[in-house]
TrEMBL record:
Family: Belongs to the nitroreductase family.
Name the record gives this protein: Nitroreductase
Pfam families, per database record: Nitroreductase
Statement: the UniProt record of this protein carries the keyword Amino-acid biosynthesis: no
Residue ranges of every copy of the Nitroreductase domain listed in the record: 8-61, 85-144
One Gene Ontology MF term: oxidoreductase activity
Length: 168
């Protein structure tokens, strides 16, 4: 699939089938994240693959948006390894880029994802016993879309380039 087609095809999946995700597909998705660019190439991202029933139940304590996905990736960064530029740390940006790569690879493999940024960080750190230097950024539910899953009505609604781009 051509990249622009892939980017347009990807949508937020909020209903998943209970079909298990093959290990080789999970590995390809994780590899897509591994090769993503990060600030200064510090690679501070830390990805937790949540797949056991008990671990998925913990996610439900952190956010109401788990969507009963069979796999949930917890995207974090190591605060000690994130690059500090002129004005700010890039810690939260790096796992966001990594997550985008993984979402697109998942789409290429026939899987669905949804970015979940609405969660309680303190509960997440506690439930998953994250060290103090590991900062959670988002959850990424992952799995095969349920047969009735479809893009939201707003999916194709995009502003005109003239509204979002300025040539200087």
């Amino acid at each position: 699939m051509d990249f622009l087609e892939l980017a347009k095809e990807r949508y937020s999946v909020r209903v998943y089938s209970d079909e298990p995700v093959e290990e080789e597909k999970i590995n390809k998705i994780l590899e897509a994240g591994r090769v993503a660019p990060t600030a200064h190439n510090n690679q501070p991202q830390r990805i937790y693959v949540i797949q056991s029933k008990d671990a998925r139940e913990k996610v439900k304590k952190c956010t109401r948006y788990s969507f009963n996905a069979p796999i949930i990736l917890l995207l974090c960064y190591d605060e000690d390894e994130s690059w500090f530029g002129q004005n700010d740390r890039f810690g939260s940006i790096d796992p966001t880029i990594v997550g985008t790569h993984m979402m697109l690879e998942a789409t290429e493999l026939g899987l669905g994802t949804v970015w979940v940024g609405s969660f309680n960080a303190e509960i997440t750190k506690s439930e998953f016993a994250l060290p103090s230097n590991i900062i959670p950024v988002a959850f990424l539910p992952l799995g095969y879309p349920f047969h009735t899953s479809e893009p939201s009505a707003m999916h194709a609604s995009r502003k005109n380039l003239l509204e979002t781009v300025r040539y200087l």
